[in-house]
Write a structure and sequence with these properties.
Length: about 500
């Protein structure tokens, strides 16, 4: 078997093993070292002798220093690597005030004549699905809602063929929380903005209990949002469980009748709001799937669409790359503010960014968060960053936006939904069956072996980039075309199986 070593930057002194099954001790690399020990697939091999204390470079960046001598041909794993400190937030490269765009940033030429068939909403946004969402004020109502949802799906949906589904916006918030604490604004605005997601057709139906802290008018302030049907379980008119369910069913029916009148219309690709994230990453994430997503992100931005990249702890170590790419000094400043807020949030909990990596990441060859971050940030492509979205806020500017969210797959997805995401791209190397009921999730495998084993869960295999049978640009273009098809109604594997993870709110405020 010919050894496949992947080195991404000329200054790198390690390379990643591409061969399935890894490389055995004694393997001779053409023009390179002889392996001193077995190195698993996706793990790093020292290309030169690395005495203790040596800088280890990948992506052209120092990802750590060796804690002991590693000879050329040795395995560089997390136990021989000491992680550097997080880069300081002062003295970062900033765009100058008199230039709207830093000179280093290429002007991406516009990409025209790409369309999808979506559902145009009254507020101008476009849905990729036609869903009835029933939003809730408090977890207490979830059991009753689940019962009603099962009946709606069974008894009502078959009569409304134009409606793709019904989803309950369920969560653990709403009561037993410090609702006036400063940080409570985050979960509350997240729920408010999810109700406005383009995939829900501007139809906000609310289910509340009655005695909870998060009252409907606090969730959706009157005058700001047109609320449709409301059901309150503690209302006197409800005598027994069945009457509660009847109220939900009849209110939902009125919404379904209106949603059923909607039809897909041809709209420009510019109407896409694509959230990108990764989960269950491995060392191939930064070589195959994430660069392909980055190229696709550039195509989307060129087509006028909105792209959200996120996961604070997975971009923190690349903060200098982000501020350098900010379109204005104000955007760079907002990036720094969000990073500083998150540093303080982690410190308050006695943790730092190193808490991000999982045992699976390490088994997959990612030694630490610096290496993971360098592979994660490439999902954002090369476009200028035109906006920063605070957790739970809506995106306001078309183009590439940094949506500051935790890296947790569920919390990131929930916050991207609140930002207005109508299509989700998710890369994975270890494999996760992640899906959302609110929005299609296109899953991209980093390795062909995973794509083969999980053939009915992965929507695209980026593995051919690793073995040289496809370029990053070809794969990025393929993903772009797939996104337009999915936006037009083609169902993802997760949708075909009905796989959906729970929404998880980001609540940095105290509970009581
Ligand atoms: Ca994630």
């Amino acid at each position: 078997m010919k050894p496949v070593l992947i080195r991404l930057h000329a200054s790198d002194n390690v390379a990643v093993v591409g061969n399935e099954g890894g490389l055995a001790a004694g393997t001779v690399v053409d023009g390179g070292p002889t392996l001193r020990e077995r190195v698993p697939q996706a793990h790093k091999l020292a290309l030169v002798d690395l005495p203790a204390g040596s800088e280890v470079r990948r992506y052209g960046v120092v990802i750590g220093r060796t804690t002991r001598d590693v000879p050329a041909g040795g395995w560089v794993h997390e136990r021989v690597l000491q992680m550097p400190a997080a880069p300081p937030l002062a003295g970062l490269p900033m765009p100058t005030a008199d230039s709207a765009r830093p000179p280093a940033l290429p002007l991406l030429p516009p990409l025209e004549s790409h369309y999808f068939d979506g559902y145009r909403n009254a507020d101008g946004s476009v849905g990729t699905r036609n869903l009835l969402a029933i939003t809730t004020t408090v977890q207490c109502v979830a059991g009753v809602l689940d019962h009603a949802l099962a009946r709606i799906r069974r008894e009502l949906l078959p009569q409304y063929r134009q409606v793709d589904g019904v989803v309950g916006i369920e969560h653990a918030y709403g009561c037993g929380v410090a609702i006036d604490a400063p940080d409570a604004a985050i979960p509350i605005r997240t729920l408010r903005h999810i109700a406005l997601n383009p995939n829900f057709g501007g139809e906000v139906m609310v289910l509340s209990l009655g005695c909870e802290k998060l009252q409907p008018e606090r969730l959706l302030p009157p005058g700001s949002i047109a609320i449709g049907g409301q059901v309150r379980l503690q209302d006197d008119k409800h005598v027994g469980f069945a009457s509660m369910v009847d109220s939900i069913m009849s209110t939902a029916q009125a919404h379904l009748q209106r949603l059923n009148e909607r039809r897909r219309v041809r709209v420009p690709a510019a109407e896409l709001v694509v959230g990108v994230q990764c989960g269950g990453s491995d060392a191939f994430s930064g070589i195959t799937a994430n660069p392909a997503v980055g190229h696709c992100s550039d195509l989307l931005v060129r087509a006028g669409a909105t792209v959200l990249f996120s996961e604070v702890t997975e971009v923190r170590d690349a903060v200098d790359q982000l501020t350098r790419r900010a379109a204005t000094p104000q955007v760079a400043q907002r990036i720094i503010e969000e990073m500083a807020w998150y540093d303080a949030y982690l410190a308050r909990g006695g943790a730092d960014r190193s808490a991000n990596t999982t045992p699976g990441n390490k088994a997959g060859g990612l030694s630490n968060i610096v290496e993971k971050a360098m592979g994660s940030i490439v999902k954002s492509g090369t476009a200028p960053i035109v906006g920063v979205v605070a957790p739970g806020e809506r995106v306001l500017t078309r183009g590439l936006n940094y949506a500051a969210t935790p890296a947790s797959d569920f919390i990131c997805g929930t916050l991207q939904l609140a930002a207005g995401m109508n299509l989700h791209v998710f890369t994975t190397g270890r494999g996760t069956p992640y899906g959302l009921a609110e929005c299609p999730v296109v899953k991209v495998a980093t390795r062909s072996e995973l794509a083969r084993r999980w053939h009915d869960l992965m929507d695209l295999d980026a593995g051919p980039i690793a073995d040289g049978t496809a370029s990053v640009e070809q794969m990025g273009r393929a993903l772009f075309e797939l996104l337009l098809q999915v936006a037009s109604g083609r169902r993802t594997w997760a949708e075909q199986h009905g796989l959906a993870n729970a929404l998880v709110l980001f609540n940095p405020a105290p509970v009581t």
